[in-house]
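Example 260.
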Amino acid sequence: MNVDEIDCRLIEQGSWVEQVEWLAEVDSTNRFLANETMTGRNLPVLVGANTQTAGRGRGSNSWWSAPGSLTFSIVFDPQQFAIPTSFLPRMSLSTGMAVRKTVARWLPESNVQVKWPNDVYVQGRKVAGLLIESHPASPSLLIVGIGLNVNNSLQSAPQQLQAKATSIVDMSGSEASRTDVLIQLLEDLEHEWNRIATASDFLEDYRNHCYLSGRNILVNDGVDEIGGLCEGVDAEGALLVRLPVGVQRIFAGTIEVIGE
Ligand code: BTN
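Predicted structure in complex with biotin:
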């Protein structure tokens, strides 16, 4: 089988997703699902695309999609994983940890980390990004969008991305089956989401793989920018930044590492 072939039936049979649809091209898989009515549908539904013409990211980020990457979104009810509403903020960190785990399976020799809240980095370069939104017409449903660079070499990416991002093929030198990576990723997501409310070692696990800890960072919350030393995450998943006046807890924002 061609490594880039997506076998929708195999994914449906080998995972907890009820319906898989794969498109040749779409503007954004998150937007596609947000525009679909979910009433009466068998959830979870996964929609992926070989290329996105307007892939969206967190804040003002966009997402570069090229053939060979995995770009998809899943719409589901968090109740399926018995996630209490009070634990929903942890979804973001937990989803990043699941993607981290999948990437590490294909890159066992590399240092695969999470950049708060949920970007996945390999040796200091971004390999995956996540965008989690609620469904506009059914706000109790979540849309989790994942972009993971698999067989798309960054050599064909826009110049400004080449030094900042990487892919599984660039790091390992071999292509991976996109269907296998996706099935494994769905298994890792299921495992992480099922333990959101119970795992006592979750934060320790997150801290062990935290890319920003000990680095000087700039945090932009859309209004202000502050700079300081990152001291990891606290029990609620907030990012801790040491400033001259003390430690500040950050709940949202984009982070830039300085001095690298
Ligand atoms: C980020 O890096 O800020 C998040 C990027 C998220 C990209 C994925 S690709 C699939 C899904 N569809 C989108 O438009 N965005 C997400």
